[in-house]
Amino acid sequence: MEKPLTITTKLLEELPKTDLHLHLDGSLRPTTLIALAKSYDVELPSYTEEGLRELVFKDDYANLGEYLAGFKYTTAVLQSESALERVAFELAEDNQAEGVRYIEVRFAPQLHMHSHMDAATVLRSVNRGLARARDQFNSRPEVTSGAEPPFAYGIVVCALRMFSELASEYYRDLLRVHRYSPERRVFAQASMELAQSAVRIRDEHDIPIVGFDLAGQELGYPAQDHREAYQFAHKNFMMKTVHAGEAYGPESIFQAITDLHADRIGHGFFLLDTTMIADPTIKDRERYVEALVQYIADRRITVEVCLTSNLQTNPAIGELKNHAFLKMRDHRLSVTFCTDNRLISDTTVTKELSLAAELLEGDSKLLKDAIIYGFKRSFFPGSYQGKRQYVRRIIDYYDEVEARHQDAQAAGQQ
Ligand SMILES: [Zn+2]
Questions:
Q1: How close is the Cα of 43 to the center of ligand 1, in Å?
Q2: Per-residue b/e over 145-171, b at no fewer than 16 CB within 10 Å?
Q3: Out of 3.30.470.20, 3.20.20.140, 1.10.1240.10, 3.30.700.30, which CATH number does the structure's domain 9-409 have?
Q4: pLDDT tens readout for residues 207-263
Q5: Where are the domains of the chain?
Q6: pTM score above 0.85
Q7: How many whole angstroms from 215 Cα to the centroid of ligand 1?
Q8: Which residues are catalytic?
Q9: How many Å lie between the centroid of ligand 1 and the Cα of residue 213?
């Protein structure tokens, strides 16, 4: 009998992979952040990579607030077309360098909007960077000859559950204009404006804006408020994902599915945690979670699991082995592993998959299922036929890479 394949870092790097939950503004190269801060006169607590790692982008954070603190620097430097294009290009390039073949880059365009930059300009800039990196990669002989599958991407726009005047010029102006309206209504209105402009820009500018997302603090800012925006996205054939169950209980995920028509769930960490249910009208908590999980499993609503990020924002998890992923697997949920923020979490897709492999006790078949699920449950731009062909090509290539490693391991070369 053939020896089981050992999952090595080299194997993980060569396998074709996805990252479906990847924030543009959380994934800059530290050197680029420093260079952009210098050219735009943005004050940083340190101008060296080591200094930033010590003060802002750590391995361990005390809480979600500390985790999010770094975003104020990254969004501050991303206020021009050239900065957005550069960061998008480099993000695609960093993914390509570790064998990632498909990414969905998400960000909140409204964080980058001001009097000289509207939503279309923001989205066009990011798209230019991603398209340039894609074309560069796909013109390599390995891809043009058909030996390797091409690189592809989609863009996901994020609405925010809540924001302050300090978040950006756009948000500040919106809050000022509607200063007599309840704040939650203004947040909902910002989401609706984003949904409308995302659909228009997708159609007019031929930009692969494939999905709509909702990010930000769950507690006190329910998903329901953004129903109208999601309804608009839904009616216009845009796919939907929602950050839910990251810091709040199962009913947040319930709202994401029922009110916002979520096709995927970002994090879903507390999906199975009956103790996190806050709604007093839910009497039988076990039954509620069981029904919710069954629905999610049966509809193949995919959970975007970000292991490192979850460990950093929920220090109570403690060790990797306590992560809810193992329970998700026991319930046969569809799961894909993602980085969330390459800079803020100091991670890569390869690192996330090596953690996943550890949880899966080195089972290469289970790992393959999770990786291929990323391609299958992606919001791939283009036709369904095109997507099927792409996934088929990816699976063939995956098998080739595995076979090559299996042979090398058998020959004792690795
Ligand atoms: Zn996220």
A1: 25
A2: eeebbbbbbbbbbbbbbbbeeebbbbb
A3: 3.20.20.140
A4: 999 999 999 888 889 999 999 999 999 999 999 999 998 778 898 899 999 999 999
A5: 9-409
A6: yes
A7: 7
A8: 246
A9: 9
